From TrEMBL:
It is an enzyme of class 4 (lyase). GO terms for cellular component: endoplasmic reticulum membrane. Its EC number is 4.2.1.134. One of its GO terms (biological process) is sphingolipid biosynthetic process. It is a multi-pass membrane protein. It catalyses: a very-long-chain (3R)-3-hydroxyacyl-CoA = a very-long-chain (2E)-enoyl-CoA + H2O; (3R)-hydroxyhexadecanoyl-CoA = (2E)-hexadecenoyl-CoA + H2O. Pathway: Lipid metabolism; fatty acid biosynthesis. Belongs to the very long-chain fatty acids dehydratase HACD family. It is found in: Endoplasmic reticulum membrane; Membrane. Keywords: Endoplasmic reticulum, Fatty acid biosynthesis, Fatty acid metabolism, Lipid biosynthesis, Lipid metabolism, Lyase, Membrane, Transmembrane, Transmembrane helix. The chain crosses the membrane at residues 7-30, 42-65, 127-144, 181-201. This is Very-long-chain (3R)-3-hydroxyacyl-CoA dehydratase.
């Protein structure tokens, strides 16, 4: 309906503005301060980044209620990966926030999202530019695996701090003889992260073929 389409357009516009601000801020800071800007990336843009990622949870709801025709599982995995790494790993350990990998991760996320939300906004209005369509469904194929590698590296960097401070590790009192050692949880999650990457990359290729097939290109040109 027109109302739902307008709502999705406003949602995409809000996300586009947020990620564009982050992406532009990172570039300007790097051009102004050079490598010195990398260490405090989280402190300068972390709040807006967290707001954008929290807002992205709505995309799961959009798929569940049927106003977004994307596949649920791949989108769910992509969103939860970011939520876990950003809020559980980076946000909880101040020592990790100053690492260069955080800047790399934020750069990859925002580059992908600026393109994706630009494409989505135009698509809501029935506007399809072939170069933008190609970029949206092609750029993610090399950059998504790079972002997964950056996530995995961020988790590995955080492990010594989780071990030292005992963050999120739980030891249940007597009579229970059960404890949760959070670094082990993160190591197991690394396996899930890279297993899910294979599934998501397969879905990205499927979406690219669906949108950039010869028939679809001819239809959008006409």
């Amino acid at each position: 309906s027109f109302t739902m389409n307008m709502y999705l357009f406003v949602y995409d516009l809000m996300q586009f503005c947020g990620h564009s601000w982050i992406f532009t801020n990172m570039i300007i800071r790097f051009m102004t301060f050079g490598k010195d800007s990398l260490a405090d990336t989280f402190y300068s843009i972390g709040l807006v980044m967290r707001l954008c990622q929290l807002l992205s949870v709505l995309e799961i709801l959009h798929i569940l209620i049927g106003i977004d025709k994307s596949r649920l599982l791949p989108r769910f995995l992509q969103i939860t990966e970011r939520i876990i790494v950003l809020f559980v790993v980076i946000n909880s350990q101040e020592e990790v926030q100053g690492k260069y990998v955080v800047c790399v991760l934020f750069f990859l996320w925002n580059l992908l999202d600026v393109v994706r939300y630009t494409y989505n906004m135009l698509a809501r209005m029935g506007i399809y530019y072939l170069p933008l369509t190609w970029l949206n469904f092609s750029l993610c194929i090399p950059l998504y695996p790079l972002s997964v590698l950056a996530k995995g590296f961020a988790i590995c960097v955080s492990l010594p701090y989780f071990e030292s401070f005992g963050t999120y590790s739980i030891k249940l009192p007597f009579p229970f003889t059960f404890s949760i050692y959070f670094p082990y949880v993160l190591k197991m999650y690394l396996l899930v992260l890279f297993t899910g990457m294979c599934f998501i990359i397969q879905n990205l290729f499927y979406e690219r073929m669906a949108h950039l097939g010869t028939g679809n290109i001819k239809n959008k040109r006409s």
